[in-house]
User: What shape does this take?
Amino acid sequence: MAQCQARKHDAKAELNRRSQVCETLAGTGVRVAKMEIIVVVGFLKKRNNPAMTIPAELVQRLATAKSVTVLTGAGVSAESGVPTFRDAQTGLWEKYSPEELATPRAFRRNPRLVWEWYDWRRKLVAGAKPNPAHFALVEMEGLFLRFHLITQNVDGLHQRAGSRHVIELHGNITRTKCSEEGTIVSSWKDTGDVPPKCPACGGLLRPDVVWFEEPMPEEEMQEAMTASTHCDFFFSIGTSTVVYPAAALPSEAWRSGATVVEINPQPTPLTPQAHFALAGAAGVVLPELVRAIRASRRF
Ligand code: OAD
Assistant: This one.
């Protein structure tokens, strides 16, 4: 009981704090929004994963939905063998610290280490294949009049599965850019330098991803905000919802009147706020959800 009350209290504080983040976003424009992590202690605990059945009420309500927006995170690629960031034991940040590898300061301090870490991940991603969760999202795109897919993932697996328009909030690990000029560089001379140098200006090359403390891509963030505040349904799938400003999008959708659905085997700060929280693996729940929606439309 005490634990239950504590969680409710945390949830209220978190909602207030999120409102402030959203107001900051709305007041100052997304241009100044930088990526930050906010971990709410107490939410990231294990929960039981009973066999998943899709609630009939959810299927019924989805039958008349015109506009659906989905936000995905690392959990969607977990079943493709790409490690998440914060899962205990297997999470990347269990082994490496974001400050050492995913900030501009880290790159300035040790560009070789950062390049090699991303190179390792790039190879891992190249060998990975989209899983049933990615394919179910491709199918969902065809089931609704308007469908927006926003992702924090940098692995490009949504596109490789066949999703046509993906809003990438944190960039894409398969692209490389010049750290001085910001221009995308697709080929360079192999001189043995690590990281390699920009053929145009000689600056160090880096992955085209958004690091902590860096500004979010303006256009993508604006598009994601609009998609989140103009939808009937908002799905938050496989994300711990602790990295802002992406983590503010479900709350924005909620405040705009959307039905918010979470798919995640673990509880997150969003769970108490979600209208439906489906506690299961995305690769299991999403195909079931698509089947249920299709079945409901046959009658
Ligand atoms: P996290 O690692 O923080 O969270 C992954 C989430 O996926 C967790 O809540 C897991 O419970 C859940 N999960 C694990 N397996 C799953 C499965 N099979 N199906 C569904 N959910 C599953 O990853 P993100 O929320 O994506 O930024 O992290 C956001 C950002 O923080 C990333 O873009 C990255 C990271 O630091 C940078 O690298 C700069």
